[in-house]
Design a protein that fits this description.
This protein is mostly helical. About 80% of the residues lie in helices and about 0% in strands. The termini are far apart.
Amino acid sequence: MLIGWLVVLFLVLLALNIPVCFVLLMISTVYVFVKDVPLTVLGHVLTTSTDSFILTAIPLFVLAAYMMDKGDVSNRIIDFSRDLVGHLPGGLAHVNVVANMIVAGMSGSALADAGGIGVVAVKMMRRGGYDDDFTAAITASASIIGPIIPPSIPLVLYGAIARESVGKLFLGGAIPGVLVGISLMIYIYITAGKRNYPVTPRPTAREILQHCRRVFLPILTPFIILGGIVGGFFTPTEAAAVACLYAFILGRFIYKAMSWKDCFKAFFDTALLTGVVVFIMGMAALWSWMITSEGVATLLVEYMTTLTKDPLVMLFLMNIILLILGCFIEPLAIMIMVLPVFLPILEAYKISTLHFGVVMTLALMIGLLTPPFGECLFLLSAITGLPVGRVAAAVAPCLIYIIAVLVLITVFPGFVTWLPNLLM
């Protein structure tokens, strides 16, 4: 009965536009006082939810992304991507997508990509004569590739909660991430043909060679990360530390584009973002503990298993739940809140936790593009100066193509599991 009232309070507070982490804090406070829970229990829940070596990879991957951004990597990747796809119809929009796919191998955050490569891409497309709506839509949609193609902050968190190999999850996200990029490029190709967008001239062999040389060292980053994990040379956390060191050496000593002030700014921004993430994780862990203590998780599992005996139908039901929650709640918070409920269902239906990890991550990233609380929509609104509603309307056609990829990897697990099973 109490949980029912707390759920109602949760929805009311969300409707009042209060950040979800504070909503969870308020609800947890009410529960603790009503149930007279000892504070030692709360301390145990909070510490165990964040006390994991693998979670150390999250701030390290964020730091690597910030250092890459401040080390003149974005412009190098843009130039290289223009050589690859700039001559196609809608060339600069294709460049935007391909650049995000490359940066995705160095970062693990959609917001970091949108705020880094996205700023450069928006300026590039505006100078190229593309309208603001289309520019914002492609930049926002391409940014969600970051957490799918490895490395990925959500997949690190999923691996820690579900006790699944992060290395396998990273490899599992590679093909779906590329598929999302290809789907967006198909949309761009169709739209560019209708709107007659300009293309860039084909580069000369000398220009291609020059840009390849400029981008060679940054592009090694994902190969160092994945190669080290797959080869057993280091753990995902150690791989993140290596990526930070590599990004620092590139930006500070090789390219000489990053000052000591930039370094300290990268550390400060990383600490700020990490503090927000850890706070969300702690509050969501309290919510998960509450619904488990009250037996809600067990009841939901029993109810959902009565709906269907088909694992594929159950996967689609889970996707629908994630897509709805993604409209209102931050992805990492959703992951911590619902996984304690979903994991027993996966076990009951013999659904691979590796497969579901990538499916869940893509479904949650779609939430970054859906109103009313899509974070990428607000970020692109700030970058372009367009109203959030206008950005959301422009993103809507892109969502059709991205959801098609979600359906594809849900129905055919091989798109996720083939590469990890082959290499690990």
